[in-house]
Amino acid sequence: MIEMMTDGALAIPKLLLDSYAEIGLDEAQCMMILQIFKYIKEGNAFPTPNELAGKMSCDASQCSNHLRELVQRGFLDIVQEKDGSVYSESYSLEPLWNRLMSVHMLSRTQHQKIEQED
Amino acid sequence: MIEMMTDGALAIPKLLLDSYAEIGLDEAQCMMILQIFKYIKEGNAFPTPNELAGKMSCDASQCSNHLRELVQRGFLDIVQEKDGSVYSESYSLEPLWNRLMSVHMLSRTQHQKIEQED
Amino acid sequence: MIEMMTDGALAIPKLLLDSYAEIGLDEAQCMMILQIFKYIKEGNAFPTPNELAGKMSCDASQCSNHLRELVQRGFLDIVQEKDGSVYSESYSLEPLWNRLMSVHMLSRTQHQKIEQED
Amino acid sequence: MIEMMTDGALAIPKLLLDSYAEIGLDEAQCMMILQIFKYIKEGNAFPTPNELAGKMSCDASQCSNHLRELVQRGFLDIVQEKDGSVYSESYSLEPLWNRLMSVHMLSRTQHQKIEQED
C-alpha cells in the first residue's frame, strides 16, 4: 500500500491523450507508447517486444510489428550509443513529442486568429 | 507553456497500464478508460460519446458501443443522482479499480507464497 | 486503498522545487503555494487561512500574513469575478509561474552561451 | 518545452501535503523530504547536503542538521548496501510513509466509528 502511495502514479502528458488520434495514431499504438514511456521513466529505455507483450493484449511478434511501424512512420527513434566497446540501444519518444507540440502550437495559432477576427 | 507546466500532466495509476490486459481489456478499451478518467479529473464526470470520439480514432457510435460493453462487462458504472427535481448521471470507474486491486493482491499473495516455499 | 490509487497523487511542476529558493521564496512560502495549488486542482480556488492552517504548522493568523506577503511581493494574485450580482474571488498562481519560467529561460540561455563559447 | 511536457511534473503523495504537520514536521522539513523524494525518483538516492542546499533556502551545514534530525526522529533511514567490496548508501523514506499511513488509517477508523454512532 505504501508502494501505491509513493510509486503508484505515472505523470503522463495530457497532450498525448488529447491529440494522438489527430496525429494519426490508433489506440493500440498510443497504448504501446504509454508502455514505452513508463519503461523509460522506470529506467529501462529499451524494453523488448516480449516485455511489452507481457503487459499488452498482443503477442511479442505483433509488438515487434507495431514497434517497426512506429519507427518507420517517424514517431519513435532508436538511439545507439557506444561506451568504450559496449554498444547500447534505447528508444526515444522525441519525434512523437515534437509532432504533438507542432499540432498544439498550430491549433493555438488558429484559435488566436479566429479570436482576433471576431 | 505555463499551462503545460502547471496543468500538462495527468497522474494515472500504474496498475492500469500493468494489468489491463490481465483483466481482459484490450488497448482500445483501456484508452477509453483513460479518456474517461481524464474527463472525470477535469470535472466532467459524464462525457458524451461525441466528446470521447473527438479524442479517439473511433466515431461516436463506436464509442457508444464500447461504453455499453464496458458497463455490461462490469468495468464501468453509471451513477444516477437526484438533486431536487434535477437528475444527473456520472461514470464511476470504481468497479474497474476493484478488479485491478484484486488482481494486484492475488499476485502479491502468490509471490509471497513462492518466496516462503523457497 | 482505491482512493490512494486513483486520487492519491498530485502532479506538481518540478520547476517549483528546483527554483523556489532562486526566486526568493523560503520553505514555508513554497509549502503554502503547494497547498494552494492542491486546493485549486481539487476545485477550491480560494482556500481560507483557516483551511490552510489546518494542513500546516502555522495558525490562521500566520497564514493570513503569509498570504498577504505573497500577494504584496507579486507571487500570488487575487482574481475577482462577478457573475450576475454574485462576486467571487479566487487565487491565481500565474505570477509565480511566470517568474519561474523567466528564471528557467534565462538559465537555459546562459547555458547555451557558455556552450557556444567553449 | 518538450522536456516540460514529458518530464516537468513530479507525482507526489497527497497524503504528505495533508498530514506532515499532523505527524510533527514543519514546512522546512517537509520541503527537504520533497527534495529527497525527487532526487530518489530521478535516480540519485543519496543527495549530499550540498546538492540539497543548492535547491533550498538553507546552506549545506543547515541541511546536514536537518537530515540528522530527520534520521534521529525516525522519519528517514540511511540504508547501507555492499556490492562486492563497494559500499553504497541511500536514503529511504519508508519510515515516513509508514507514519503517514498509520495516521491516515487511524483517522479513517475514527471517521467510520463516528458515522456508525450517528
Automatic annotation (TrEMBL), chains A, B, C, D:
Residues 12-109 form the DnaD N-terminal domain. Belongs to the DnaB/DnaD family. This is DNA replication protein DnaD. It comes from Pullulanibacillus camelliae. The chain holds residues 1 to 118 of 228 of the full protein.
